[in-house]
Amino acid sequence: TMAHSKALLVLENFIGGKFVPCSSYIDSYNPSTGDVYCRVPDSGKEEVEAAVRSAKAAFPIWSSKSPLERSQILNKLADLIEHDLEAFAQAESKDQGKTITFARTVDIPRAVYNFRFFASSILHHTTECTEMATMGCMHYTSRAPVGVAGLISPWNLPLYLLTWKIAPAIACGNTVVAKPSEMTSVTAWMMCKLLEKAGVPHGVVNIVFGTGTKAGEALICHPDVPLISFTGSTLTAQRITEKSAPHCKRLSLELGGKNPAIIFNDADLTQCIPTTLRSSFANQGEICLCTSRIFVQRGIYSEFLKRFVAEAKKWKVGNPSDPTVNVGALISKEHLEKVRSYVKKAQAEGARVLCGEGVDSLALPTGNQKGYFMLPTVIAEVKDESCCMQEEIFGPVTCVVAFDTEEEVIERANSVKYGLAATVWSSNVGRVHRVAQRLQAGLVWTNCWLVRDLNLPFGGMKASGIGREGAKDSYEFFTEVKTITIKH
Ligand code: NAD
What we know:
The protein has 488 residues and is α/β, with parallel strands linked by helices. Helices cover 40% and strands 22% of the residues. The strands form six sheets. Strands 15-16-17-14-13-19-20 form a seven-stranded mixed sheet, with helices on both faces. A six-stranded mixed sheet has the order 10-9-8-11-12-22, with helices on both faces. A three-stranded mixed sheet has the order 1-5-4, covered by helices on one side.
């Protein structure tokens, strides 16, 4: 009804420094209540065309600014987001289903830091120079921004991952057209309101909202967008690669994972257990770096399992805006069904579900009965070939299995199509180095998880991606290099 629709939050595209309404809209749900609360533009070719045009028009001026000028603008934007941190955190929690605590302590602080980090790192790059004395020549490299960057981000860490792309892209002097996930568009829209105040010239950052198949593909296929940075699923990345192939675009693809934790008999369980609970269930298990295969050496297997399950049961599921809640709502009804179906499949195959889905009962507050909630779930005695051990589930579900030798566990850990991240737990220094070297993963954390230095490369091997992002890697991705030879 009209009365009802008046209460909805209605987003608009941000093109050429102005908010622009769209001719059609998509419903966006509050995952913790199941209600439609927001309408997101359903952009297509026309909107993307307008956004690319304004990004192209802004490029000559933005790219000719000095790194220091761009750096100051990025820092100002970071300050403005930080000033509104609480409002951003509330919005992210409502839109995504994640807990307010996670949004306050992880998502929004990191979005702020992404701008500060690239505002700083852009000041410190140097290019190369070599000499060829016998030829009377020296060579040097110069780097220049590429043009209009197309940025596509997922729903699990909305502003965090979007700013991880926008910040390096514009720090390097590119202009951008970004498309956040249609399921989590609100914080990107809020950020648009701060761009002018931060001093970002019109057209440098354009955001078109909408679905992947409509707005996303229009961006991927646009001939004036020479580079695409994408974070999302491996399946979508395959489609993007195919669609962009005729244009020979430069692609950075950050994709899914099926990340192992390898826990040896000599692991310090007082550190390992709480960290592995976090690595399995943080953000409802909806982080590409989440652990979903836990290999425990035989000698500590039963003790680990007993303690791990006891602790998992303490994780409180409920209203995301309650600061004592550890697990919020999953992103959508469809996604919740998909995650649940994996637990059913495991049971059908003879695995044991030790806690969570189908085993314990979930008591939800009155207002959250229709939300997309699920208990942290631990599955044991599941075969390596099972889809639960091979496919990315992307929910609060983790599998625990036993192993005997180092050689064996390396082989089993590597026998999935993905290669994003891994954790290794042991107090034997030689062993952690040996195992880390042999794991097929872009990131290996030993005796910790998710400790990131943004200076160093981030990204996956195998089906987990192509390319890396980080201080130097993002700089290289978002610039074009040229080698110049001078004869003297
Ligand atoms: P998704 O692939 O469904 O969507 C990601 C984005 O791509 C969305 O904005 C979507 O609208 C868009 N999209 C979908 N189809 C498209 C198309 N044909 N053309 C252009 N754009 C299209 O992924 P998701 O479900 O939003 O996110 C979850 C996935 O992201 C998981 O697989 C997770 O592991 C992965 N992820 C990876 C990283 C990483 O850094 N490696 C980080 C977070 C999430």
